[in-house]
């Protein structure tokens, strides 16, 4: 039976991926430092899944976990802007970049020892493009100009994947995630996405706050599609270290999002506008064509469908 490592396995996307792999009959080691996620209830873990609390930047730990598995989905990262830009920058850098590097090096080493490819699919981010103000979908060859430490670390991960592919045949694939949503984000965390925050606000029957004029657009991709893309990318991992957008290609303004969510909930709450967030991208929408060609991946969950399901759960 195939056994895979999922890092960030206690996080929002990680939990969905672990559950999907288990449903597919795979064995899974879900590893997480728990620095930004809660300990999963061991009694509720699907059959074939074990959980390990681990600092993945610890190379010996990365080596151990990689040796026990046949492939890795690397989702662990520090998504907190406050931590990665503030006093916790060193730990955040370790969680986002060093952990990925440790796993990539462990994967290359395992490959050299066994002579078999060890595929590693890692989460990169639309943050690597920076706060583009162009209103055209971003293709993979668009300039990458990250504005924060998180985006810079994700870009560095892409560069290291390429470098380790060239020097040691490390077999990787990167997916640049746009705005993922779905059940399982903490509604009280300021690092949760706008959809999760709006849902909680609507449930509390409070006014929605839109930063800026609300005409900024995002590419919202449902977590079920995210999971599918990760699974498809596993067999596309190679020393060429390919990277694809993980997106829908559809632009949704925050005004439209708020309207849709209010309509689905039958809410008549008010909307208040606050000053725009500093550095907020005006238009962050991906071009999905390359992933469609290479992986056969097209996002299937429409925003209406995804929101309806999300607001019911
Ligand atoms: C997302 C990521 C971030 C990443 C960035 C670039 C999340 C939570 N954040 O940020 O880590 O660096 O993409 O790829 O996924 N908004 C409101 N009202 C609210 C909350 C948000 O108007 O109550 C607006 C924001 O100003 C923004 C949009 O909604 O314009 C989306 O916000 P958010 O979900 O935080 O994601 P990004 O800013 O795109």
Question: Which short descriptors sum up this protein?
Answer:
single chain; 313 residues; alpha/beta; Rossmann fold; UDP-galactose 4-epimerase, domain 1; 2 domains; seven-stranded parallel β-sheet; three-stranded mixed β-sheet; 10 helices; 39% helix; 18% strand; globular; binds uridine-diphosphate-N-acetylglucosamine
Furnish the topology, listing elements before pairings:
Elements: E1 3-7, H1 12-23, E2 27-32, E3 49-53, H2 59-67, E4 71-74, H3 81-85, H4 89-114, E5 120-125, H5 149-168, E6 172-177, E7 179-181, H6 194-203, E8 208-211, E9 217-218, E10 220-222, H7 223-234, E11 243-246, E12 252-253, H8 254-265, E13 271-274, E14 283-284, H9 289-295, H10 303-312
Parallel strand pairs: 1-2, 1-4, 2-3, 4-5, 5-6, 6-11, 7-10, 8-13, 9-14
Antiparallel strand pairs: 9-12
């Amino acid at each position: 039976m195939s056994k895979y490592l999922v890092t960030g396995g206690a996080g929002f996307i990680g939990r969905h991926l672990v559950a999907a792999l288990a449903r597919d009959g795979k064995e899974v080691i879900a590893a997480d430092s728990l620095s930004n996620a809660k300990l999963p209830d061991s009694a509720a873990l699907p059959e074939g899944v074990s959980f390990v609390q681990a600092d993945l930047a610890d190379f010996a730990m990365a080596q151990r976990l990689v040796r026990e598995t046949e492939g890795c989905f690397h989702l662990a990262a520090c998504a907190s802007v406050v931590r990665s830009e503030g006093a916790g920058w060193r730990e955040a850098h370790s969680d986002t970049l060093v952990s990925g590097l440790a796993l990539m090096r462990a994967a290359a080493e395992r490959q050299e020892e066994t002579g078999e490819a060890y595929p590693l699919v890692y989460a990169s981010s639309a943050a690597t493009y920076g706060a583009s103000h162009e209103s055209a979908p971003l293709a993979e060859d668009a300039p990458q100009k990250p504005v924060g430490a998180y985006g810079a670390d994700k870009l560095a991960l892409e560069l290291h994947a390429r470098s380790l592919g060239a020097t040691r045949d490390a077999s990787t694939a990167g997916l640049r995630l746009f705005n993922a949503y779905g059940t399982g984000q903490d509604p009280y965390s300021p690092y949760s996405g706008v959809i999760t925050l709006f849902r909680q606000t609507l449930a509390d029957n409070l006014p929605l706050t839109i930063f800026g004029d609300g005409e900024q657009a995002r590419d919202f991709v449902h977590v079920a599609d995210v999971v599918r893309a990760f699974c498809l990318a596993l067999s596309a991992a190679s020393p060429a270290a390919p990277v694809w957008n993980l997106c829908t290609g559809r632009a949704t303004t925050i005004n439209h999002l708020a309207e849709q969510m209010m309509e689905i909930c039958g809410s008549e709450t008010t909307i208040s506008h606050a000053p725009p967030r500093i550095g907020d991208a005006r238009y962050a929408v991906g071009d999905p064509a390359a992933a469609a060609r290479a992986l056969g991946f097209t996002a299937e969950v429409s925003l209406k469908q995804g929101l309806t399901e999300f607001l019911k759960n």
